[in-house]
Amino acid sequence: MTTSLTRSPRRRTVIALGVVLVVLIAFVVRLVDIQVVNAREHVDDSLAMGMQDSRTIYGSRGSIVDENGVTLAASVNRYDVDIDPKLAAQGLTDRDDSGNVEVTQTWSQIAAQIAGITGQDPADVEKIVTDAVAANPDSRWANVAKRVSTEQYRALAALGLPFLSFPPQAGRIYPDGAVAGNLVGFVGSDGEPLAGLESADNACLASQNGKVVFQQGRDGNVLPGTEVETEPAVDGGTLKLTIDRDLQWYLSQLIAEQVQNTGSLRGTITVVEAKTGKIRALAEYPTVDPNDPTSTPADDRGSAAFGNPNEPGSTMKAITAAIGLDSGAFTADTTVTASGSETLPGDARVSDSFSHGANNYTLTGVLIDSSNVGISKFGEMIPLDTRVSYLEKFGLTQQTGVDFPGESSGIMRDPAQWDKQTFYNTTFGQGISVTVPQLAGAYQTIANGGVRMPLSLVEGCTAADGTVTDVPDAQGTRVVSEAAARQVSLMLENVATQGTLAKQVEIPGYRVAIKTGTGEKTDPQTGAYKGDAYFTTMIGFAPADDPQYVVEVNLDEPRTVKSSAATAPAFQKALTQVLKTYRVIPSGTTTPELPKFG
Q1: At what angle are helices 372-379 and 316-327 packed, to 10 degrees?
Q2: pLDDT per position as a tens digit, 121-166
Q3: pLDDT per residue over 284-303, tens digit each?
Q4: Fewer CB atoms near the end CB (10 Å): N or C, the chain?
């Protein structure tokens, strides 16, 4: 009897423990179901009942880097500084030994501390809270500052002020400032892309924000373990450019110096890899610092190289020569007789830049002396429709493959409406306007043996998952035969060796091909030529026996020297630096001399 009574309590205890264990297991199973298995469903239910809140997880905008991976644009953390006016107005308080509340720091004193970190006027910071409380004594939010740096955020957080909060915001920095600023572009204060490649390639760079939902206690604090990521954040891709940052920097300094020395309005130096069409540098002055775009006049924040077409002048003569040679209209041995000024069929009046008698010019001689009359006579051997078709093939009537924001496709009037004057003028680069990259692309075609490669500024976009897109098209288009391109290249070498600027463009050890051009500028109001305003160009490539790089220097309205000679010093320095940068092997031969006259 005693044994039975003794065992009965033990049995009840075991049963009770078993029941408790079963209940605990049920609770655990239920918690796993709520917080893990069906978490998203319950999150939606709780949100519907108003029991949860959420916050944004910010994805980072992608970086822009140069061909070597050097950062040109990157995202950084920035922080807004928000405040609870109702609490802040009370200042910081404590209790003395008797339990009485005393103010240890007034709001005015605290405002001065905050302003010392944010760089604001203390009175302005103080006024933010006093105005908010005056408007609404129960006000619980006001903004003190937007997008402060990480250093400022840390200093503010170190103050230990319970009424300050610091919601993170995405910021953008450009480590090299104005270097490539016209190309890279910039974003607005809200992070939206506004110009340049930031805008053109936003699909690559843009991030996707995510969301976390959570439960809050009555005090507003997040309840531990209740956070659920309902939408993951996705960072933007990395945009790799074709340009070389160091070369871009050097050429940026060089063109700024040349613009200032010649009193020009603006200038550009462009470098294109002959065999690929990749733009390795495109330096402009004036340029924009993307860190502070509003400090630059609005007209200078974009790319004039892509957006402002100008008459190419005598640089077009090499294109006319290539068209005629390839189409069979004439040969390298064909000659024409040209004087310093002549009236051509249709009462078209054409003059050279210098006076001379009747010369029996070879095509090479026309290019060396840059004779407008001579190239007009070669040009009239080419049927108009043939010449127009080749201009299109050279890419001079359409946008380049870069498709840069605000890019112009050039200006060419309908050839069906050309009079005889326009017919002749277009052979030497008047009556037609092209952009800087369009002309560089045409000379890239000649340097590349007659094959035009689409110009490119972007090497590719690498997404967060490693996928690479936007790779430049490696397929070129044949425009003229290799023989025709080689003949024109050799003629341009003779321009470099026999022309008036031979000594200024010489680079020891390298064969160089060049052509200069002086295009008259028109008045935007009347459309007539200004008469004393010119757009000067020097373009060429090296080593001419195996072309690797095309370099183009442009000056808009130089004043101290109003001819293409204004571009010569910058061209020689730029091409020399390009050959050094890419360690191009010198030429093993010298330029064969071709005759100027027949």
Answers
A1: 30
A2: 999 999 999 999 999 988 888 999 988 888 998 999 999 898 898 8
A3: 999 999 999 999 999 999 99
A4: N
Q: Which residue has the higher pLDDT, 87 or 270?
A: 270
**Worst-scoring range by mean pLDDT, 2-11, 81-90, 410-419?**
2-11
Q: Please tell me whether the overall predicted TM-score, pTM, comes out greater than 0.90 for this model.
A: no
d(C-alpha 34, C-alpha 42), whole Å: 7
| The pLDDT value given to residue 219 | 45
Long-range interactions of 265-268: CB distance < 8 A, separation 24+: 265/556, 265/557, 266/300, 266/304, 266/555, 266/556, 267/553, 267/554, 267/555, 267/556, 267/570, 268/304, 268/305, 268/436, 268/552, 268/553, 268/554
Q: What kind and span of H or E run contains 419?
A: none
In degrees rounded to 5, what are phi and psi of residue 282? -150, 90
- DSSP-assigned states of every residue in 465-486: TS-EE-PPP---EE-S-HHHHH
Are 268 and 304 a contacting pair, CB within 8 Å? yes
- The tokens for 40 are 């998203």
Q: Which amino acid is at 44?
A: D
Among 361, 342, 344, which Cα is nearest to 352's? 342
Amino acid type, 236: G
- Structure-derived torsion over alpha carbons of residues 324, 326, 328, 333, reported in degrees to the nearest 10: 70
For residue 383, the SS3 value is: coil
Contact call for residues 437 and 305 (beta carbons, < 8 A): yes
Report cis status (omega within 30 of 0) of the bond before 543: yes
CA distance 538 to 568: 7
